[in-house]
Amino acid sequence: MVSIAVNKSRENVAMLGIGAYRPQRLVSNEEVCEVLDSTPEWIFERTGVRNRRWISGDETLQSIAAAAGERAIVNSGIDRSKIGTLILATSSWLTLTPHGAPKVAHDLGMNGIAAFDLTSGCGGFGYGLGVAADLIRAGSSEYVLLIGAETMTVGLDPTDRGTAMIFGDGAGAVVVGPSADNGISPTVWGSDGKNASAIEQDVDFLEYMQKAQTMQGTDPAVEPIGRMSLRMEGPRVFRWAAVTLPRALSTALEVSGVCKEDIEVFIPHQANARINDLMKKNLGLADDIPVANDIENTGNTSAASIPLAMEEMLVTGKAKGGQTALLLGFGAGLSYAGQVVTLPPAPDEPSF
Ligand code: COA
Fold first, then answer.
1. Which residue numbers are catalytic?
2. 42 C-alpha to center of ligand 1: Å?
């Protein structure tokens, strides 16, 4: 039998640099309520959101992903020629073919590297961080650029009371690579397809095309087909989160070998400020542990929310590079992924 070579593996990996991009246009609750049957006060009280960013002008998912990636590379100080893989965690890239990562790699002057999209809803960054760390540990790449980027507004129905007030656009990225001490724990992840319909597109691509074809040449009075939009049964997701996420957080601590007293920062996905406060309380984290609250002015940016929130905390000094943080992403699938990590240094090139 022939002997097939294996990669030289390594154990210790960490996030070496972070970068983010926040779209120019700030959209207030007041503006959202111009078309949504809601009030600015209700939105803030029930979700924690005051403002969100929406892309405008030349901004696209590709451009904001590349902008965040560029900042992460510069802030990490790693020569981009050493980056072997780009992972684009997103659920809002608009074509299945081609996927986004190769185009973003090209924009970043890294044409030719391994590049793939990873779709796991709002859990996408956590999934991506696990995959990035394991690629490096297995020796498949020395450095990985992980970008979480979303333009949630492309699938947003501005009149839908379940989603319109929550979601925003944005991108965050980290360079992951080898380090002297380990800075990324094993990933705790899972999914619940039984409850997948709690967050879903209202029609799939085939149904949409069939509807569009059926309408061709029909009576012009027939109401035109609307957009394909995201729907969420918020209270159902909330109930799932209340049961599933505390267990995931406890397991993340257990597998990391770090006790809750050692956690200095908590950065959960920015889905709802009330869920995040509840998780902190249930886990028994000390009152003075800073909890990410980027949702207030950035909204829920799905796979981009954790790196955006991490960057905001590092830039404002709420958290410091080298601190031990607990991360947890969760959402469509329904799925979740979390880790205990060492925070990367505060960025020299911030997003605001
Ligand atoms: N504006 C004003 N009122 C609204 C509203 C809106 N956008 N949406 C619902 N309401 C009203 C309802 O009609 C209901 O009124 P009633 O009590 O008179 O019947 C009341 O507010 C409560 O409705 P409910 O649907 O139970 O709201 P909620 O408190 O659960 O908040 C979410 C809705 C979406 C903010 C919340 O469920 C949530 O954040 N869920 C989790 C989302 C999540 O984690 N997603 C995963 C990642 S994306």
1. 122, 269, 300
2. 9
| 208: confidence class by pLDDT, cuts 50, 70, 90 | confident
Reported as a single tens digit per residue, the pLDDT across 85-98 is: 999 999 999 999 99
Please answer whether residues 333 and 123 qualify as being in contact, where contact means their C-beta atoms are separated by less than 8 angstroms: yes
Measured CA distances, 269 to 53, 99, 121, 328 (Å): 16, 24, 11, 6
Mean pLDDT of the chain: 94
Protein residues with CB under 6 Å of any ligand 1 atom:
38, 42, 46-47, 122, 161-162, 165, 234-235, 237-238, 241, 271-272, 275, 300, 331
Which residues make up the CATH 3.40.47.10 domain(s) of the chain? Answer: 13-178, 188-195+230-342
- The band of 50, judged by pLDDT with boundaries at 50, 70 and 90, is very high
Please give the number of the atom of ligand 1 that sits closest to the Cα of 272: 39
Phi-psi region of 270 (alpha: psi -120 to 50; beta: other; left: phi over 0): beta
Q: Class of 188-195+230-342 per CATH?
A: alpha beta
- Does CATH number 1.20.1260.10 belong to domain 13-178? no
b/e 233-262 (16+ beta carbons within 10 angstroms → b): ebeebeebbeebbeebbeebbeebebeeee
